Every structure is written in C-alpha cells, then in structure tokens.
C-alpha cells in the first residue's frame, strides 16, 4: 500500500504544496508573493491574506499534478514553525481541517529540520552523522544531524541571521527587497578584496551579524560624504567585499565545528545556500579539508513544500504524528 502524503508550507511569503509517495517527492508547487517588494520586506498581514487566496489552488494543483485523489491520501503534513504566526495559522488550519474531513492523521513539521532533510529529496545525500550549515533570512545555525529525527544545534547566531545581513546591506546600497540575490549577482563583477570590513568574532560556534551591518552602514555613509556618487562608482566592489566578509564568517565556524566533532559530511541548507560564493567556497576547500559536500537543488533551498514532504515521510515512518489540537509555533526550535 502506498504512503501518499500531502505537505503544505506557509511559514513566510511562499504558499507551497507537495505530494510525496513512498518517500519520493512528486512535485513542488509554489505560489510567490511579489507584493512585499513594495515595502522592503515581508508584511505579515499581507502574507497571511495571500496565503488564504493561494492555498486551495496550490493544493489542488499538487494533487492534480501527482494524479492523487484526496481519498487516497495517507496523511497531511504542515509547517508548524518557526515562521510568521498569521502565515503559519493559514497552513495549520487548512491542513487540520482537510485531514479531519478525510479522517487521516496530520504531521506537524519543524521548518528548520525540513530545510536539512531537503538533502534526501535527490541523490546523492549525506550519511549520518553530518553537519548542516542552515542559513536563511531568519536563521543561521550549525546543526549536528544524528538521524532524520535526532538533531542538535551546536552553533547559532546571537542576534541577526546572515540572510538579514545580506538584505540590509543590499538596502543600504539601494537594492530592492530581497537584495541578497542582487548582491550575489553584482559581486561576480566586483573585487572581493577592494574593501575590508571587520569580522565579529564570537566564542565557540556562535555567530553575530549585527555589527557587520552597522560597520557597512557607517562605511558607506562616510564615503558618500566625500563623494555622493560613491555607491554608483563602487557598487560591484561593495557587493563582492561584503559578500566575502559574510561568507568568511560562516566558514570560520563551520570549519571549527568539523574539527571539533570530527565529522566531514558537510551540508548547507536554507535560502542563503543558493549564494554562488558560498557554493564556490565549499567547492574550493572540500578537497583540502577532506569534506564530502552536499547542497540541495535550488528549488529546495528556498521555502518549499518539497522539504516539508520529505520531513513528513521520515516522521510517518517513525510514527511521529500530531493531533488536531496542534497550534502554530512561531519560535519553534530544533
């Protein structure tokens, strides 16, 4: 008998649905929300309203694409957290209501664990145990992954996430939201050694990215006082230099975590894992450090239901089901 799971992701501004059959992700349907570009960041109320509009069409498309009838579903999975409360509430309520109507179980999925388990959607996949650097707009974590169920955060940011640092620095030099990908794009034509920015050194495996944002702001402000065309004349070099600094900070702790644990299976996940400099740096040092490196396909790096489906499959096999009383957990931890 097939195990057919419908997964729903609604943690932020992407409404997504996916069908997984016997551990094989069949599709990954995503509805994006472009309206937030007008506000320089995600507006929670607008995100919630867009989820309400998108969730039924997205779910119907996922079922139709996989040729699965609702009556043949084995369970429905949803992102319980972390994320925006209103956005999570839409996905959680929809999933529970649909599952209750069909008389099937629900599976509450941790969004951050799902980012890590996205590595098992396609081959090759890492062997347990492995380290995963999970980097996004809201999180920066080094996670020791013992199994699909057992994970431990061994390093994290004390303040801002690296994705937020990318976006805020992008805003300072005039890029629209989300600016992180634009920094990556312009950095390819810039000199990463042109400008120097201070790394924030934290004890152990902790990160801090608030200071680098402030340093970048003050640097650009002071240079603009000397030349009001400074940004226009140096945009590519600014992008390359700040990107190098942020990636240097990420790798400093990741290398330390690998050395401390003796683990050479290294994975990266989350929206920032799509950054080309981060990927290139991994490729450059993997042989030197004897690392086996794993990076999901681009569509599984950003928020998506495919990764929720993969996590739900492992939880289904472990008998890890939720109840209809489950509620969103905006600050959910691994």
Describe this structure in a few short sentences.
Helix content is 43%, strand content 17%. By secondary structure, the chain is α/β, with parallel strands linked by helices.
List keywords for this structure.
334 residues; alpha/beta; Nucleotidyltransferase, domain 5; six-stranded mixed β-sheet; five-stranded mixed β-sheet; 43% helix
Low-confidence stretches: none
Q: Level of helix content?
A: 40-55%
Strand content: 15-25%
Radius of gyration over C-alpha positions, nearest whole angstrom: 20 Å
Corresponding CATH superfamily of the largest domain: ATPase, nucleotide binding domain
Assign the structural class, choosing from mainly alpha, mainly beta, alpha/beta, alpha+beta, or little secondary structure.
alpha/beta
State the helix count: 9
Largest sheet: 6 strands, mixed
Q: How many domains make up the coordinates?
A: 2
Question: In the CATH classification, which architecture of the largest domain applies?
Answer: 2-Layer Sandwich
Termini, distance in Å? 32 Å
Describe the model:
With 334 residues, the protein is an alpha/beta fold. It has helices at 44-66, 85-102, 111-117, 162-172, 180-187, 210-226, 230-261, 276-289, 305-318; strands spanning 4-9, 14-21, 24-25, 29-32, 75-81, 106-110, 130-135, 140-145, 151-156, 265-269, 292-294. The protein is globular, with a radius of gyration of 20 Å.
């Amino acid at each position: 008998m097939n195990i057919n799971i419908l997964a729903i992701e609604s943690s932020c501004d992407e409404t997504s649905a996916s069908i997984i059959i016997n551990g094989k992700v069949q599709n990954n349907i995503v509805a994006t929300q472009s309206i937030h570009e007008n506000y320089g960041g995600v507006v929670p109320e607008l995100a919630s309203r867009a989820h309400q509009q998108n969730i039924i069409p997205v779910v119907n498309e996922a079922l139709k694409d996989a040729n699965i009838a609702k009556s043949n579903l084995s369970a429905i999975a949803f992102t319980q957290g972390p994320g925006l409360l209103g956005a999570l509430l839409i996905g959680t309520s929809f999933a529970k209501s649909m599952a209750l109507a069909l008389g099937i179980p629900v599976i509450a999925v941790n969004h951050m664990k799902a980012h890590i388990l996205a590595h098992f959607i396609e081959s090759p996949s890492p062997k347990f145990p492995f380290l995963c650097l999970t980097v996004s707009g809201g999180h920066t974590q080094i996670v020791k992954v013992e199994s699909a169920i057992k994970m431990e955060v061994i390093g994290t940011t004390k303040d801002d996430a690296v994705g937020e640092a990318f976006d805020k620095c992008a805003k300072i030099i005039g890029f629209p939201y989300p600016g992180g990908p634009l920094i990556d794009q312009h950095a390819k034509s810039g000199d990463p050694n042109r400008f120097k920015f201070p790394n924030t050194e934290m004890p152990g495996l902790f990160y801090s990215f608030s200071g680098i944002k402030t340093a970048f702001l003050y640097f650009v402000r002071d240079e603009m006082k000397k030349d009001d065309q400074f940004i226009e004349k140096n945009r590519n070099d600014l992008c390359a230099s700040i990107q190098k600094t942020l990636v240097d900070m990420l790798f400093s702790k990741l290398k330390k975590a690998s050395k401390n644990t003796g683990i050479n299976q290294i994975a990266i996940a989350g929206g920032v894992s799509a950054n080309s400099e981060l990927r290139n740096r991994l490729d450059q040092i993997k042989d030197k450090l004897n690392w086996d490196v794993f990076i999901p396909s681009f569509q599984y790096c950003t928020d998506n239901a495919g990764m929720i489906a993969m996590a739900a499959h492992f939880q289904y096999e472990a008998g890890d089901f939720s109840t209809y009383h489950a509620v969103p957990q905006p600050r959910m931890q691994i």
